[in-house]
Amino acid sequence: MFMTVKQASEKWGISDRRVRILCAEGKIPGAYQEGRAWKIPIDAIKPADGRYKTKESLLSQIDRKKKELDGKRPLTEGELTRLNEEFTVEYTYNSNAIEGNTLTLRETDLVLRGLTIDQKPLKDHMEAVGHKEAFDFVTELVKEKCEINERVIKQIHYLVLADKKDDRGVYR
């Protein structure tokens, strides 16, 4: 006697798709495909879900990684500066790329160091510089524990839109 994928999914409380995957991976003994349909033995037991680790093992992994990270602390001032610069360049590049900026990661780094890139629009340069200035401004706000209000948001907006003189810092 055999059951269908639908019957197995209802019996085991999982999706039809998951049952088909388990069949295709050979995790249900005795299951075979007849045409496009799977035939699953009526007495088949739901296989263990090997996709997820138990919470306990996940927590132990987190603890192990935290200990590993703690062992590398404290970071030197030079390491902190380097990590911050790398993050700022990647964050600026990714944020601007989403908006259609044509600068590469390397070009973004050079622009943030004060260089101009030949045959790249000034708009792309201004976007990168404005984004970095806004990021630096927000970083300072956090260090000083400043309250966020409408004026501060407009200042951030003003910095981000360095390439759009008429739009920056105002409502549309």
The geometry reads as: elongated
| Number of H/I helices | 7
Q: Give the fraction of residues assigned to helices.
A: 55-70%
**Major sheet strand order:** 1-3-2
- First and last CA, distance: 68 Å
Regarding quaternary structure, what we see is: single chain
Stretches where pLDDT is under 50 for at least 5 consecutive residues are none
Order of helices and strands: EHHEEHHHHH
* SSE-based structural type: mainly alpha
Whole-number mean pLDDT: 91
DSSP E strands, number: 3
What is the total number of structural domains?
Answer: 2
Rg over CA atoms: 27 Å
The main pleated sheet reads as:
3 strands, antiparallel
Strand content: 5-15%
If you had to describe this structure to a student in words, what would you say it looks like?
This protein has 172 residues and is mainly alpha-helical. It has 2 domains: 40 residues; 84 residues, no CATH class. 56% of the residues lie in helices and 6% in strands. It has 7 helices and 3 strands. Strands 1-3-2 form a 3-stranded antiparallel sheet. A hairpin with a 2-residue loop joins strand 2 and strand 3. Helix 1 packs across helix 2, helix 4 packs across helix 6 and helix 6 packs antiparallel against helix 7. It is elongated and about 75 Å long. The model has no long low-confidence stretch (mean pLDDT 91).
